[in-house]
Amino acid sequence: MEARDRRGAAQQLCRIITGFYRRGWCLATSGNFSARTQNDPFRLLITRSGLDKGLVGPDDWIVVDGDGRPADGETGKPSAETFLHAAVAKQMEAASVMHTHSIPATLVSEHFRTGGGVTIRGYEILKGLRGVTTHEQEIFLPIVDNAQDMQVLYERVQPRLATRPRPHGFLIAGHGLYTWGDSIEEAKRHVETLEFLLDCVARRTRFAPFE
Ligand SMILES: [Zn+2]
């Protein structure tokens, strides 16, 4: 885990978000991104609320504490999902948490919801995930039901992240993907790897009509 300076982290995250936006992974105000700037006390840099992710700049960020509240005299409203970012960053001891809303992740999360998750194996790109060294290694992404209350959502997610082996991310049904990393670079790599995998799963799945 690494701590980052605020300005440098914001600029790096902006470049990453622009790339993700172009791929359709965080259109409109969807998705949010965070990076730990300090470990003790816990401080997290996150996007402000309601930002168009195609237009996000280095001033559109806010530092929050471990409960997701503005810290150190910061003003403004952090992203609606800030509490979940902070909770996941602490539980997974992550330096960066990233959340995307792609079409494949949304479709897969809804289709596999009743099974509690989706198992993925057999793809070379799995090696983009920390600790995965062969395409034969199987990963499991838990899926939890969506909620607008982030505390309720975290209560659903928390036990699913405590399993061994630890998951590399999770899906919220009908909503999107969360993943994280030991650094901003690793979290970005995990988004790209998991979005690739979810796109593969989506293209091979025969989806039922939405009810
Ligand atoms: Zn979201």
Separation, N- and C-terminal Cα atoms: 42 Å
In total, the number of strands is 8
Name the poorly predicted regions: none
What does the radius of gyration come to?
A: 16 Å
Shape: globular
Largest sheet: 8 strands, mixed
Mean pLDDT: 94
Strand order of the largest sheet: 3-2-1-4-8-7-6-5
**In DSSP terms, counting alpha (H) and pi (I) runs of 4 or more, how many helices?**
5
Helix-strand string: HEEEHEHEEHEEH
Q: What small-molecule ligands were found?
A: zinc ion
Approximate helicity band: 25-40%
Q: How much of the residues is beta strand, in percent?
A: 15-25%
Assembly of the depicted chains: single chain
Structural class: alpha+beta
Annotation keywords:
5 helices; 211 residues; eight-stranded mixed beta sheet; 8 strands; globular; binds zinc ion; alpha+beta
